[in-house]
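Hi everyone, sorry if this is the wrong subforum. Our group has a chain we'd like a structural model of before ordering constructs, and none of us has done structure prediction before. Sequence below.
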Amino acid sequence: VRSRGLGDVYKRQAVTRGRRGGLAGNEGAVATLAVMYEYAEAAVEGALAAGATYADARVVVSKREGIDVQNQAVQSLDRTEQAGVGVRALIGSSWGFFAIADLSRRAATESGQRAAEIARASAVVPGSPMQFADVPVVQADYETPYDEDPFAVPVSEKVDLLVGVTKTMQEVEGIAIATGNLAFYDTNKWFVSSQGHRIHQHIVESGGGFDATALGERESQRRSYPQSFGQYETGGYEAVRKWDYAGNAGRIAEEAASLLTADEMEERETDLILEGSQLALQIHESVGHAIELDRILGWEAAFAGTSHLELANLGTFRFGSDLMNISADATLAGALGTFGFDDEGTPAQRVDIVRNGIWLGVLSGRDSAAIAGLPPGGMVRGDGYNRLPMVRMTNVGILPGDSSLEEIIADTEDGVYMATNRSWSIDDKRLNFQFGTEIAWEVKNGRLGRILKNPTYTGIGPVFWGSLDRLAGGDEWVHWGTPNCGKGQPMQVAHTGHSAAPARFKNVRVGVRG
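Answer:
Right subforum, don't worry. Here is the predicted structure as tokens:
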């Protein structure tokens, strides 16, 4: 058990929590709000006094609780807390950024000064003049709607849930490893800009999952629930309860064990039906990263490369079939990429990305949007107080169709149904890809048939999306959460959402090895 606390910060600021765990609703909380704004303002004032033409600052106080259980034994129980201030300063065409884990007026002021010094040093090699797309200057508060504070739920209850789930999975013959995990995040952010923004946000995120690994003589097979990375949402502990871990543990373990004796998927071209969480990852990798404007402009290439998309083709490029309608929507209740304002003070909003197969929108910040001549989409976020905010996905998802998984299977004469991601690979233009899933079922004459192991499929982005011909509807539309999206150097991890329902793609190459 590890714990790192804010100790003196909370003692000094006398933080008191309201009924639902937020920072509003009593005198102590109001005092805390005021002093956090003072630190952010001091940072901005320090940057401006040192010559910055624009500056903004984020004071961030966050905590995380994580629990990991393997084979009915607790492997880790970790609760960490951190606090600090991060400042951006603009001089000429160059940004400077500085962050420090010290919440005091003096430290905040010095942080602003240091950010301006870094910007001035960067401006020695000048670039094009920096422009900012306009956004409303607001003073606002936002809090994640939630029913049950996840940090108020007894640790014993959470551990018991995971121990029980792993016990159920271990009772299935062939299961060698059964693991479960939960994680909860509570983040308060105070944003101040030299243009007049004063925004407080309280973001609560909850989730987890479990998996069973079956061990055979020459191989192992794994099944996960609700998806391979766990399912995370904005909200309280209700986001865990709704997935009924106990009721699904036995089924997941039995599927893992059955894969040991299943037939290998053969290489062929056939109709492919994707389960919702796999389609969500397909969207993340082949659409979400490709539409990040910093990649399109060539500003960013770490981890995921750049993009095959070109701004000159915005509004005319055919990305997929008429059924492909993608939006980036940071306002979806419960989705992991939902918030009130991004880390530049731009309001959360819905942006059309692809409509009826035509590429219409991008993920942008105020600076990149200005260069592209587009309105800013509110997609800039930083991983904590000590990381420079950058363009990140919000909730990039496909809008539901009018079918159902049952109808799609019934309408498929010959195909495969694949579920739950196992592996992924995509080139540095976000164009050519290969995915592997944990399990697949053969589809013959409108019915699910034998289980197939080690399934894979491959394709080229626009060709693959152009083959989309059936899409399930709203009853099966889920806001899948991806809690581990990496980008940038030093790397930042973002929490993103991807709404999806099961879908069918025609004539896809499956079973490819190597």
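For your construct planning: The longest helix spans residues 27-49. The chain has eleven helices and 25 strands.
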